[in-house]
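Per reviewer request, we include the raw input and output of the structure prediction for the construct analysed in the revised manuscript.
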Amino acid sequence: MIRVLLVDDQPLIRSGFRALLDLEDDIEVVAEAADGKEGLALARQHLPDIALVDIQMPVMDGIEVTRRVAADPALERMHVVILTNYGMDEYVFDALRAGAAGFLVKDILPEDLLHAVRVAARGDALLAPSITRKLINRYVTQPLNSGLDKALEELTNREREAVALVARGLSNDEIAGRMVISPLTAKTHVNRAMTKLHARDRAHLVVLAYESGLVTPRDS
């Protein structure tokens, strides 16, 4: 059972998402919150698998919620998915850096929302292809993270290749096909790269790939 926490200051958004999610046999909404502070308290109380968090809220916004979740060992198994009204705004970039597993626009189709919750529960990144290009373009305007140089040196060539494919948005199965290896081996390469680069999840791995210069828009 995938346990979900809804955090949004708009009651209609919460009720709509809850009605949809509660229809699924493998998904359960365990709590709702109208602001980030309340959401953080409920997260610590219920320990959900996924928190769908609005990026702009009173009291505490989604970026701060994400930052505090990432810093709390008790919540290390919870994935924060940011909800936004726009395909890409200035706050989404900061939320991903803070540790969000990905982001969704609020007018997402019902079937896409259900798929996204299940993808996030598996620990995969939620970076919609239609938005990833804007995200990439935003990253290359930022200073590269030179502190990653030493960590990058520890990656094998195959691990580097796997990271580059993750940054393009490929799943483990797709990476396996591209690298002509088994899905299990692909997963191993990705997991080892995450460990060496101290990536929290696949979304963070994408962030590090672009910040370090390992991957550039020309490669994607």
